Task: inverse folding
């Protein structure tokens, strides 16, 4: 029966029907009740209270008291109420009952009032009105949606609606009175159904749980049941009221979705493993070709050197093409990330400029960069994607320009509001240009201006497609204006905002394009011929470096490259061998292969970190050196405690840079190193390397050496007793409000000492929690790492007498 049919039914009743919310505000009534207040339409009473009608103000508070009493009691109330209608005193017999909302909370009352002023007709009239009210209520209960039922303390049914009786196989709902679940079609589920009833009666609380029951037609269905206790006038539990909704279709749908999800995940995992294994199988021999060529190049005559250099160049071109294909495959397999962070556009431009100046100079091109002076110094947006966009566009411009210039400009675009605006990245060249009919398709996957077999230009038809995907991920746009034989101008418009004070911690830009590496275990390699590396004489005090690599060829080449820097190398051919060789403090650096025959590089790294933690030792830098390719490599490596990722092959230049950076502690940038967010290695790219405890800085803060030492001692004491337990407790409970309070309090204490790395890690964790970043766990682990470093540094300073 529709809502309008019910209203018409109520309007025909010779009694007054109304319903109010728990504050006494009318939600509706029938026509008779409306006319009592001089209204023509029942809808006019909605939103009003009895107090708004002056003639009845003297009686309104009594009506409200009755309403409140009804809402406190489970049982209906029948009482006489007095009022004025057309200045005539009227006595009404009112029957009121409370009703609840979907959550089981009392929402208001529904009432039926009968005029019994005429005493001679009172008995007959009362009987008729009560009968009609009962019929109306009975019809409503019978047609309620869902399965509605109520039982006594012994779980005997006191009543139900039509649907519940029909499911039980009864002719009508009155047949259920006195029966138990044992007497109905769902007899096998009796114990479970009664258990929930007993919980309700024992606790006097409402419960909402899923139940299964066998219907009279033989079908087993699943219900979402909400059950609440029934109370008598003394507030004693006398039974249970329940309503159950059939969710069988939804459960089937959920199961189907789960099955499809598992199939999709299995397919995705299969693709990921195939991609990783294919990358390993192709890049490993290519790495050997390139590395061997570089080593031979330094030992041959000029003519022979040119031939070897040509081999190396061909290998690098093939490697570049393969890496582009891998990156394209990863983009098809996973959504592009759009991590928002504070960054400096000036740093990005400088990084791009330094990267491409050698290429431009080699082609005798003028490479100019320009940044709009009105552009804010600290921006907030997707730094990684912006970097990749500029990297690809500038790389293309230099590749396809044989003479003239390449110009990179970043200018302020349209201001959207006080904080938001657009930035335009403009890359202009004097290269070959793009025909008009090709300018629409160059952003499509694998589209080239001319087929590769024409040998007119280099390129694989991947770069601009990747650029377009990054731009779309940032909700931006890209346009091209080009004339064939004259040059091209690419304009990218990106929405950004000014970084707030809480967001203003700048994250250094990546050093090279992100060539992610893999996360899949591979089978043992095919047996290869042994190659003995050339021995390089090492000084007695030369640092030790651990190389973990299973391929004999790559093992020998890489060992020789590392030894050429003057370092001593220990080689482990498998994960267990690396664990057995590792001694905390012995190695200045570890190069870790990912695909090992017994355990993957992630597990090996975790075991090495556990050895260091047990010894309380400072952590040795671990760099992933791999030929794999996987979407989530950064997450895996960061979780294993690594500092960065390098793609095979390791070059002589990279080995030297890594030695200077990690061993000699020089501010050297390692080409191709992909730093992992939250790792301590990120601090190496700040303007100057940060010490754990900056003693001169501590003295400068409080202007007293004695006071500085006192403050350090106080913070150290509170670290274990108060600050760290509060932060850890709030983090483990996922109580972000308490966690932010604890971090804020800790930062307040750090203001009185100078511990740049610990302070930065705390700020990073604070921002990750505030902005709900996906790097939250990495930031938390980085914070705990810096806490350990602080405690080790403090203990060391005490031992040497500086504190």
Result:
């Amino acid at each position: 029966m529709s809502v309008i049919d019910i209203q018409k039914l109520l309007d025909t009743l010779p009694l007054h029907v109304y319903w109010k919310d728990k504050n006494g505000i009318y939600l509706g009534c029938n026509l008779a009740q409306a006319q009592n207040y001089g209204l023509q339409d029942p809808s006019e009473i909605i939103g009003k209270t009895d107090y708004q009608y002056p003639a009845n103000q003297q009686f309104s508070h009594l009506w409200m008291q009755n309403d409140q009493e009804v809402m406190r009691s489970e049982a209906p109330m029948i009482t006489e109420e007095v009022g004025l209608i057309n200045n005539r005193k009227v006595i009404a017999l009112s029957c009121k009952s409370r009703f609840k909302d979907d959550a089981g909370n009392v929402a208001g009352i529904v009432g039926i009032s009968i005029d019994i002023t005429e005493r001679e007709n009172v008995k007959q009239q009362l009987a008729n009105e009560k009968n009609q009210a009962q019929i109306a209520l009975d019809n409503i209960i019978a047609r309620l949606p869902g399965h509605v039922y109520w039982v006594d303390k012994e779980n005997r049914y006191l009543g139900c609606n039509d649907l519940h009786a029909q499911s039980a196989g009864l002719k009508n709902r009155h047949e259920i009175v006195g029966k138990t679940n044992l007497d109905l079609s769902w007899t096998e589920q009796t114990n479970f159904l009664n258990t929930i009833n007993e919980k309700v009666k024992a606790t006097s609380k409402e419960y909402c749980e899923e139940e299964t029951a066998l219907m009279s037609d033989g079908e087993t269905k699943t219900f979402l049941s909400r059950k609440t206790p029934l109370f008598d006038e003394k507030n004693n539990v006398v039974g249970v009221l329940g309503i159950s909704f059939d969710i069988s279709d939804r459960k089937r749908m959920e199961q189907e979705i789960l099955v499809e999800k598992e199939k999709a995940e299995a397919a995705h995992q299969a693709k990921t493993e195939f991609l990783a294994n294919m990358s390993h199988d192709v890049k490993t021999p290519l790495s050997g070709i390139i590395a061997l060529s570089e080593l031979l190049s330094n030992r041959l005559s000029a003519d022979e050197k040119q031939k070897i250099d040509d081999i190396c160049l061909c290998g690098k071109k093939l490697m570049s093409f393969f890496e582009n294909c891998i990156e394209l495959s990863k983009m098809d397999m996973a959504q592009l990330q759009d991590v928002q962070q504070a960054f400096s556009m000036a740093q990005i431009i400088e990084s791009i400029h330094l990267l491409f100046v050698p290429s431009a100079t080699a082609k005798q091109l003028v490479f100019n960069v320009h940044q709009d002076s009105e552009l804010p110094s600290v921006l907030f947006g997707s730094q990684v994607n912006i970097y990749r966009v500029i990297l690809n566009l500038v790389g293309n411009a230099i590749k396809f320009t044989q003479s003239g210039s390449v110009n990179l400009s970043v200018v302020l675009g349209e201001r959207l509001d006080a904080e938001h605006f657009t930035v335009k990245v403009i890359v202009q060249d004097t290269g070959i240009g793009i025909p008009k009919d090709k300018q629409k398709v160059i952003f499509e996957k694998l589209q080239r201006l001319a087929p590769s077999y024409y040998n007119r230009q280099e390129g694989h038809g991947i770069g601009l497609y990747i650029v377009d995907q990054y731009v779309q991920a940032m909700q931006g746009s890209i346009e091209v204006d080009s004339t064939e034989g004259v040059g091209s101008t690419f304009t990218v418009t990106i929405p950004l905002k000014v970084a707030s004070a809480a967001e203003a911690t700048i994250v250094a830009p990546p050093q090279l394009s992100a060539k992610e590496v893999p996360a899949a275990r591979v089978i043992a390699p095919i047996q290869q011929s042994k190659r003995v590396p050339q021995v390089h004489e090492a000084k007695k005090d030369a640092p030790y470096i651990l190389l973990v690599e299973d391929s004999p060829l790559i093992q020998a080449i890489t060992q020789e490259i590392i030894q050429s820097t003057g370092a001593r190398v220990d080689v482990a051919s498998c994960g267990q061998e690396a664990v057995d060789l590792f001694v905390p403090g012995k190695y200045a650096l570890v190069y870790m292969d990912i695909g090992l025959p017994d355990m993957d590089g992630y597990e090996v790294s975790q075991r090495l970190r556990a050895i260091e933690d047990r010894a309380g030792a400072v952590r040795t830098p671990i760099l992933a050196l791999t030929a794999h390719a996987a979407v989530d490599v950064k997450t895996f490596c960061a979780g294993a405690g690594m500092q960065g990722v390098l793609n095979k092959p390791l070059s002589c230049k990279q080995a030297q840079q890594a030695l200077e950076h990690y061993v000699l502690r020089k501010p050297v940038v390692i080409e191709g190193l992909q730093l992992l967010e939250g790792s301590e290695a990120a601090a190496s790219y700040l303007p100057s390397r940060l010490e754990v405890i900056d003693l001169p800085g501590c003295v400068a803060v409080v202007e007293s050496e004695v006071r500085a030492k006192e403050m350090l001692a106080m913070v150290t004491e509170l670290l274990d007793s108060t600050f760290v337990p509060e932060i850890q407790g709030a983090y483990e409970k996922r109580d972000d409000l308490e966690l932010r309070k604890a971090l804020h309090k800790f930062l307040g204490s750090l203001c009185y000492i100078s511990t740049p790395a610990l302070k930065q890690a705390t700020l990073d964790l604070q921002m990750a929690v505030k902005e709900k970043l996906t790097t939250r766990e990495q930031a938390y682990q980085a914070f705990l790492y810096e806490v350990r470093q602080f405690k080790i540094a403090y203990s060391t300073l005490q031992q040497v007498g500086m504190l």
Q: What stands out?
A: Confidence is low (pLDDT under 50) at residues 446-461, 512-533, 680-690. The longest strand covers residues 88-100. The radius of gyration is 39 Å. The chain has five domains: 3-142, 147-246, 345-503, 544-679, 695-799.
